[in-house]
Amino acid sequence: MDRLGGTQASTRAVRFHQRIPPHRLMRRARRVVDDAIDLVRLRLDALPDGIYQPVPGLPVRKAKRAVGTGSRWAAMEPVIERLGVESAMDVGANVGYFPIKLAGRGIPAVALDSDPKNVRTATTAVRRNHLDNVAVMSLELRADTLALLPTTDCTIVLSLWHHLVRAEGFDTATHLLHELWARTGKVMFFDTGEDEMPEWFGLPRMVPTPDAWLSDYLQKTCAGGRVEHLGRHRAFDAAGLPTDRALFAVIREPS
């Protein structure tokens, strides 16, 4: 009886494999191996502090900026819906939270970052969410790479500008922001480090208040845009201590 049962099971297995073309079996096996490798790499890249954003589909418990990321999206999403955004680019996307949320709304998005760990994690997140409308782009934003960037309805520039000022100086950071705005069809979302950042970042004095200074700066830098303040949201300073920052939407006025 056992021999008969074993023979029948073997026959069913042979027929099963005969029904599946070898190239499909190879793809399945490759997918299993890729999943295992991605999981190991994801856990290594998340050490020691976890990931920065609470990206859907990633088996990582700790996201450093979970509260602030969620509140920013809650403030941004109604503007995106109101303006009828149909394409987006997140410059300094980190691990891809905002492009993935946009893609979930049916909005194709580019996630641009220069940190290899972030690029790997974002790529894994896109695949695990079964998305085919997100492009993960490994690129450092510089004057000589601007020409590679697409024009989209929406540009997201969060927690990036103060790093550009530190690395390139205020004038170059302003030029880069101006050029990103030139590639923006409907709305640019912006926040940055403020007075909590140390002097060696080289940020200007934001007087009378960071909210007022940044609003005026965006109005001058983004010609043809109307600046909306979208509240203050949780962030972290250079030492990793909690703080909050203003979030802005710069909305392109009809010409």
Shape call:
globular
Q: Which percent range describes the beta-strand content?
A: 15-25%
Order of helices and strands: HHHEHEHEEHHEHEE
| Count of runs of 4 or more consecutive helical residues | 8
Provide a short characterization of the protein structure.
Helix content is 45%, strand content 20%.
Question: What structural keywords apply?
Answer:
7 strands; 45% helix; 8 helices; 255 residues; 20% strand; single chain; alpha/beta; globular; seven-stranded mixed β-sheet
What does this protein structure show overall?
With 255 residues, the chain is of the alpha/beta class. Helices cover 45% and strands 20% of the residues. The protein has 8 helices and 7 strands, in the order H-H-H-E-H-E-H-E-E-H-H-E-H-E-E. It has helices at 2-19, 22-45, 66-83, 97-104, 116-128, 161-168, 170-182, 210-221; strands spanning 88-91, 109-113, 134-138, 152-158, 184-191, 225-236, 242-252. It has a 7-stranded mixed beta sheet with strand order 3-2-1-4-5-7-6, with helices on both faces. It is globular, with a radius of gyration of 23 Å.
